Amino acid sequence: MLILVANLGSTSFKYKLFDLASNADTPPRVVGSGSADRIGQPESAWSATLGQHEEDGTLELPDHAAAAKLHLDLLERAGVIESINAIDAVGFKAVHGGPISGAVKVDDNVLDTMQRFADVAPAHNPPYIAAMRAFAKLLPDTPQVAAFETGYHQTIPKARQVYAIPHEWTEDLGIRRYGFHGASHRYIATRLAEIHPQAKRIVNLHLGGSCSITAIKDGQSVANSFGMTAQSGVFHNNRVGDFDTFALLKLFKADLDVDTIFQRLGKEGGLLGISGVSADIRDVHEAAEQGNDRAKLAVDAFVESCRHYLGAYLVALGGADAISFTGGIGQHDKIVRAAICQNLGFAGIKLDLDKNNTVTGKDEQRIEATDSQVAIWVLPTNEELIVARQTAEVLGRATH
Ligand SMILES: Nc1ncnc2c1ncn2[C@@H]1O[C@H](COP(=O)(O)OP(=O)(O)O)[C@@H](O)[C@H]1O
Ligand SMILES: CC(=O)OP(=O)(O)O
Ligand SMILES: [Mg+2]
């Protein structure tokens, strides 16, 4: 069974094409994969692995649709599949389904619900809705599954779900913390259970275009930094993160209308807002190195934002056996990892700077000092594998 999993990140397009054997003991095989970064920027670097063959290049003015088309064409051209009609199902790492959580077959009700929540998921729901519609046109008979990110976080205790608001808003309108990045946090929890089974208390830092931190106890999510929406918690590439709701009153009084305020908080905040340079941390570091004070402030504030939740979750878990870094920044940014781990010896967390500097980001590596009580992992995430398994499950096929 060939399952294509589409991961439309806030800054990237990623996909994997899995061949899932009917035998549950055979692990899914990736027959093709690819990515494109800097979606929405002038130029994107893309790469693809198509069987034994690798290719890369650049794409001008990339959006998710252009990146998806490029990769589907490459799959056909490289002969990995004869035509896209060979794909048996498409799984989406969907984000906000409001009351719909976990994995479900995409139908009009799912699309309508995603549309109703598009206002609170502006960076994610619109491109997913567009992609689902585009695939339905291309492959009208191929089933689609949406694996909503909130599913993994259903184990978060109520006291960490509620906002301190009139309770009828929570009960009647569903205004509460949901948590996102469920596929990634679930993958890391599952993977660490295999390669580091002694680690029962884990803080996983998924830092990418969107950033979130999860406290994991015995494999389950018990806290996640995202709230009602994927704009909250640790701040993001260009989205605000945690913010004081009453500060909005000052913005209204400054004669800004609601749409403008939310547009700017959702597109001109985060790393971009503070630095004024870029939403991509690679550019922000470069500017900071050249002496740009706002760029340096953006990196420092980002690190503080991460340490805030790391500290909170160490308390929630009563200490950690392991912390792990994943996502584009988590896997590749040694400056951020080192700054987050600085002076945490009191909590048993000590980084080995040499290991931190030489880690590939593509392999599973440990970077703690020999006298650290807490393991520090850098782990490539594999959200697509989780979504492929969920897709097969929804469509009624047993998988490994
Ligand atoms: N080699 C790198 N070094 C440092 N940061 C990187 C690198 N590659 C990507 N990033 C950061 O990771 C972000 C993308 O992370 P990713 O997890 O792919 O994002 P998303 O899924 O949210 O689109 C980029 O915006 C950039 O800030
Ligand atoms: C919330 C979420 O899934 O974010 P992203 O796709 O940007 O990583
Ligand atoms: Mg992502």
UniProtKB/TrEMBL annotation:
<comment type="similarity">
    <text>Belongs to the acetokinase family.</text>
</comment>
<feature type="binding site">
    <location>
        <begin position="280"/>
        <end position="282"/>
    </location>
    <ligand>
        <name>ATP</name>
    </ligand>
</feature>
<protein>
    <recommendedName>
        <fullName>Acetate kinase</fullName>
        <ecNumber>2.7.2.1</ecNumber>
    </recommendedName>
</protein>
<comment type="pathway">
    <text>Metabolic intermediate biosynthesis; acetyl-CoA biosynthesis; acetyl-CoA from acetate: step 1/2.</text>
</comment>
<dbReference type="InterPro" id="IPR000890">
    <property type="entry name" value="Aliphatic_acid_kin_short-chain"/>
</dbReference>
<keyword id="KW-0479">Metal-binding</keyword>
<keyword id="KW-0460">Magnesium</keyword>
<feature type="site" description="Transition state stabilizer">
    <location>
        <position position="239"/>
    </location>
</feature>
<dbReference type="InterPro" id="IPR004372">
    <property type="entry name" value="Ac/propionate_kinase"/>
</dbReference>
<keyword id="KW-0963">Cytoplasm</keyword>
<dbReference type="InterPro" id="IPR023865">
    <property type="entry name" value="Aliphatic_acid_kinase_CS"/>
</dbReference>
<dbReference type="Pfam" id="PF00871">
    <property type="entry name" value="Acetate_kinase"/>
</dbReference>
<feature type="binding site">
    <location>
        <position position="383"/>
    </location>
    <ligand>
        <name>Mg(2+)</name>
    </ligand>
</feature>
<dbReference type="InterPro" id="IPR043129">
    <property type="entry name" value="ATPase_NBD"/>
</dbReference>
<comment type="function">
    <text>Catalyzes the formation of acetyl phosphate from acetate and ATP. Can also catalyze the reverse reaction.</text>
</comment>
<feature type="binding site">
    <location>
        <position position="14"/>
    </location>
    <ligand>
        <name>ATP</name>
    </ligand>
</feature>
<comment type="subunit">
    <text>Homodimer.</text>
</comment>
<keyword id="KW-0067">ATP-binding</keyword>
<feature type="binding site">
    <location>
        <position position="7"/>
    </location>
    <ligand>
        <name>Mg(2+)</name>
    </ligand>
</feature>
<dbReference type="GO" id="GO:0016301">
    <property type="term" value="F:kinase activity"/>
</dbReference>
<keyword id="KW-0418">Kinase</keyword>
<feature type="site" description="Transition state stabilizer">
    <location>
        <position position="181"/>
    </location>
</feature>
<keyword id="KW-0808">Transferase</keyword>
<keyword id="KW-0547">Nucleotide-binding</keyword>
